[in-house]
């Protein structure tokens, strides 16, 4: 069993990575169904939370069926972090996660996300502001360092543990790498093998198959794995990894019925949570992923992204199911 504060997770938990514009409640519901053990919201700006921006507030929405679930925040100001920790606390998720890994300019420019990797003292202050203002377990997600010459994750892990975080997820890239190249898990393993480190260490970066999950589990010895991109349109990745770790055998891929069914549920959830119009619009980015690999699927995909009519969408999905079940 892996424990984060008083949250009990199964042995070698599989985490759904926080992903902006992706890991919203409708997507999380599908990932939960197929085996994600711990999930996070999209990152939420502390500035937005304090301003009471609608977009930030909406990201706080969590539901009992998805527990355990963490709310992720980012920011570069101690006071804003402290206030946001209080807001998150009142929302009662299972944990509060801090993002010190986001590489995008608009975040880094404000001294938040991965920018904080350049100033570990500041990172400790921002983290302490959260720890001191919530009764929830606080966790952190970050990268190996700012760039190739400043990979400071070993120091970061010790200092953050000392200030009270209860788990650390590490994406095996630097900020400078963005998403390029291959994630390097060797430093993640070093953090995990540091005898001073007692908190769970979760590895993240490029896990896209059950075989890779098993190989990385064994080679790097982490306490669990966080999966991001591979789960987009393919939430079965969680159950496939679990099955392979437990039995050494590969599960059959989802049937066309399962694929269309998950897509349908995602669409229904999206319309319910965001309202019909926005739900339909935002679902458009997901069809290609749910239908990936099906031959000559372009025509269906085009129709799915060109209608605003809910009944028509479900009818096209029905057609897809029938067509591909027959081939
Ligand atoms: C579309 C997208 C949005 C992301 N948004 C966030 C975010 O809000 N917070 C965060 O900590 N990481 C974010 N990430 C990074 C992922 O959580 C993860 O660290 C990264 O994708 C590497 O894992 P993977 O190779 O399994 O995808 C995002 C990644 C993607 C692709």
From TrEMBL:
Keyword Oxidoreductase listed: yes
PROSITE patterns the record matches: UPF0034
Top-rank taxon, per record: Bacteria
The enzyme's E.C. designation: 1.3.1.-
Catalyzed reactions per annotation: a 5,6-dihydrouridine in tRNA + NADP(+) = a uridine in tRNA + NADPH + H(+); a 5,6-dihydrouridine in tRNA + NAD(+) = a uridine in tRNA + NADH + H(+)
Record Pfam families: Dus (PF01207)
InterPro entries in the record: Aldolase_TIM, DUS-like_FMN-bd, DUS_fam, DusB-like, tRNA-dHydroUridine_Synthase_C, tRNA_hU_synthase_CS
Domain DUS-like FMN-binding residues, every copy: 15-313
Keywords recorded for this protein, A-Z: Flavoprotein, FMN, NADP, Oxidoreductase, RNA-binding, tRNA processing, tRNA-binding
Names of required cofactors: FMN
Function: Catalyzes the synthesis of 5,6-dihydrouridine (D), a modified base found in the D-loop of most tRNAs, via the reduction of the C5-C6 double bond in target uridines.
Similarity comment text for this entry: Belongs to the dus family.
Official protein name in the record: tRNA-dihydrouridine synthase
Taxonomic source organism: Rurimicrobium arvi
């Amino acid at each position: 069993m892996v424990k984060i504060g008083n949250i009990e997770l199964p042995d070698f938990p599989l985490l759904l990575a926080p992903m902006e514009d992706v890991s919203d409640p409708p997507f999380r519901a599908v990932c939960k169904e197929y085996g994600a053990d711990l999930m996070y919201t999209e990152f939420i700006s502390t500035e937005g939370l304090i301003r009471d921006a609608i977009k930030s507030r909406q990201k706080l929405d969590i539901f009992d069926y998805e527990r355990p679930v963490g709310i992720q925040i980012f920011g570069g100001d101690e006071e804003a972090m402290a206030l946001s920790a209080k807001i998150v606390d009142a929302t009662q998720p299972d944990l509060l996660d801090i993002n010190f890994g986001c590489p995008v300019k608009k975040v880094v420019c404000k001294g938040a996300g991965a920018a904080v990797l350049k100033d570990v003292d500041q990172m400790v202050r921002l983290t302490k502001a959260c720890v001191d203002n919530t009764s929830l377990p606080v966790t952190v997600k970050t990268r190996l360092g700012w760039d190739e010459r400043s990979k400071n994750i070993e120091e970061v892990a010790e200092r953050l543990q000392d200030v009270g975080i209860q788990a650390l997820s590490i994406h095996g890239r630097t900020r400078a790498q963005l998403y390029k190249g291959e994630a390097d898990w060797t430093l993640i393993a070093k953090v995990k093998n540091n005898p001073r480190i007692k908190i769970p260490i979760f590895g993240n970066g490029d896990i896209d198959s059950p075989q890779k999950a098993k190989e990385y589990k064994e080679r790097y010895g982490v306490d669990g794995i966080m999966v991001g991109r591979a789960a987009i349109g393919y939430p079965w990745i969680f159950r496939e990894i679990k099955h392979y770790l437990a039995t050494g055998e590969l599960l059959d891929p989802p049937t066309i019925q399962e694929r269309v069914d998950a897509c349908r549920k995602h669409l229904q959830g999206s319309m319910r949570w965001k309202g019909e119009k926005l739900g339909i619009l935002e679902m458009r980015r997901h069809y290609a992923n749910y239908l990936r690999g099906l031959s000559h699927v372009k025509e269906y995909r085009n129709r799915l992204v060109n209608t605003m009519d809910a009944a028509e969408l479900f009818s096209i999905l029905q057609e897809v199911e029938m067509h591909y079940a027959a081939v």
